[in-house]
Design goal:
Elements: E1 10-16, H1 21-30, E2 37-44, H2 53-57, E3 61-64, H3 72-82, E4 87-90, H4 99-104, E5 109-113, H5 125-131, E6 136-143, E7 153-160, H6 167-189
Parallel strand pairs: 1-2, 1-4, 2-3, 4-5
Antiparallel strand pairs: 5-6, 6-7
Helix pairs in contact: 1-6, 5-6
The protein binds glycinamide ribonucleotide.
Residues 16, 18-22, 51, 91-92, 112-114, 175, 178 line the site of glycinamide ribonucleotide.
Length: 192
């Protein structure tokens, strides 16, 4: 992973699909003095994504793409290059990026996942955690590799599961920790 050169912040794109609470949190973090990154682009696969509001609020460029079209990744790569993006943070982004796309950003795409990977890859994580009567779950920030939720782990945080927890309660508890963990992971990557 690139190191921070001089005082320039690393230009970062955040990919979202939904609410964007992690995006909002990363924008807030990026504005702090200690942040090695700036958020310069927001990409979504979904025009209904609530998180897109933050593009307007914080005056960040945004673009929505229909990922069903093959040409899309090529177009995104062009945009990222044109905007000198050097880091991609996936934040609740629900599409799978191709091997070719990932190789164009080798070691520069990270993701946050709401489980203690390698446990509970994929979707419906909290439902499966409850079904298996887990006492702990958590969240993970990891590098993105072509195989889903399988790249090298950067940092994790454990969250206790109580007997009466519903998937919604767990999601809320985990998300709260995600908001602390994503900035921590970025600081760790850039040796801060
Ligand atoms: C987060 O819990 C994130 O970990 C999860 O979606 C939520 C997005 O919330 N991501 C995945 O499940 C990726 N496979 P947000 O839109 O409020 O940041």
């Amino acid at each position: 992973m690139a190191t921070l050169v001089g005082y320039k912040k690393i230009k970062t794109a955040v990919f979202i699909s939904g609410t964007g609470s992690n995006l909002r949190n990363l924008i807030k973090f990026s504005k702090s003095k200690k942040s090695p990154i700036s958020i310069n682009y927001i990409i979504s696969n979904n025009h209904k994504s609530k998180g897109l509001q933050y593009a307007q609020i914080f005056k960040i460029k945004k673009k929505i793409f229909n990922f069903k079209k093959r040409i899309v990744e090529k177009q995104i790569l062009q945009i990222l290059k044109r905007n000198e993006i050097n880091l991609i943070c996936l934040a609740g982004f629900m599409k799978i990026l191709s091997k070719n796309f990932i190789s164009n950003f080798e070691g520069k795409i990270i993701n946050i996942h709401p489980s203690l990977l390698p446990k509970y890859k994929g979707l419906k994580v909290h439902e499966r955690v409850i079904k298996n009567k887990e006492k702990f779950t958590g969240c993970t920030v990891h590098y993105v590799a072509p195989k889903l939720d399988s790249g090298k782990i950067i940092i994790q945080k454990k969250v206790r599961v109580s007997k009466r927890d519903t998937p919604q309660i767990i999601a809320k508890k985990v998300l709260k920790q995600e908001h602390k963990l994503y900035p921590k992971a970025i600081l760790k990557i850039f040796n801060h």
